[in-house]
Predict the 3D structure of the following.
Amino acid sequence: MRVLVVGSGGREHALCWKLAASPLLTKLWCAPGNPGIAELAETVPIGVLDIAALVDFARDNQVDLVVPGPEAPLVAGIADAMQAAGIRCCGPLAAAARLEGSKSFTKELCDAAGIPTALWERFDDAEAAREFVRRRGAPIVVKADGLAAGKGVVVAETVAEAEAAIADFMEAGTMGPAGRSVVIEECLVGEEVSLFALCDGTTALPLGAAQDHKRVGDGDTGPNTGGMGAYSPTPALSAHLQEAAMARIIRPALAELARHGTPFRGILFAGLMLTEDGAKLIEFNVRFGDPECQVLMLRLTSDLLAALLAACDGELADFDLRWSPDPALAVVLAARGYPANPVRHTPIGSLGAAMPGVQVFHAGTELLGGQLVSSGGRVLTVCATAPSLAEARKAAYMAVDAIDWPQGFCRRDIGWRALTANG
Ligand code: AMP
Ligand code: GLY
């Protein structure tokens, strides 16, 4: 199998690492990739949104399977373009990728399929939105309807904060076209977990759950980020709760999409709030989470490539995925100043010696004149797996401390909820 992975982050490095271990693999490319990925795959200098060039590359190189990492190319139709060229692509067509590209599309789907989620309303008019917020009171959640790179959500503690978000999104246009309309939601309270499922259009197989750490600072403080760390499995989502979420959220969504003639193939990521009334859907994403993917790949013992092919070919009903019972934990090393103003192009020295159970994935790195430097906000994902979560955490932080990068920082408390819950 000749495989092309699309993306350049820690998630794509972890996907390449797992795919490279497949006995089915004969050739692996990654576009555009990063220096860590370049040790496993041939990197190709094509951007993730240059879909025409990606299709040409895949056709010219007889690629058997394309694996898009991020949502942007999926929302932009990479799966449609590959399908038109007769190339398998493990991701949804644009019509189904709207689950991530449009909040109101997802909320309408939830209502149609009876999926538990926050009560909501959509507004195209700022004054009507303000009126609604004043009537409902705070706390309340204001979301830009379109794709806003994780920045389009304000959990407002006061009516004034909600009104300011409405003004920002709808009048000042801070989110561009994504904020022209907003979705306003009831504020859910509980612990958040990410549940993943591999889907072939009709069948969904659980890919495990993970807990992300979205805030930049220890103790879940400071601004939201793409995710500062993760661990899997999540004690908060028991096997029973996971099956309930598959039955009440994932499978009904899949059935509803299929009924509309837009079957979902690929990775379905449900952001869940574990409320007093059970798990409720916060949002769907149409891809793996980053850094959730990294911990899932450390725990997956089955052949990822075989699983992705089965998803593309509609053969998941007879498929089985195996997982290591050992927990895995990931710590993100970010550049100082992240998320607002990460310092760029600071040199990264040694990544430390190899340690058992530890993997260091590159997320935002590049080579400048032979020197490894940071190139983004989230720069490295340091992951470890061990027989207990406490040991995995210890190993991950030992590996973090062995990395020579003075301009990097990380949270020191990844896994705290699970470790505190277990004493
Ligand atoms: P989203 O981009 O939809 O994942 O939202 C980003 C974050 O905002 C989520 O991870 C939650 O922490 C929070 N959030 C979104 N919707 C709600 C809601 N209805 N109630 C409470 N928190 C929410
Ligand atoms: N870590 C959350 C996400 O990838 O959306």
User: Anything to note?
Assistant: The chain has 13 helices and 22 strands. The radius of gyration is 21 Å. The CA atoms of residues 229 and 331 lie 5 Å apart.
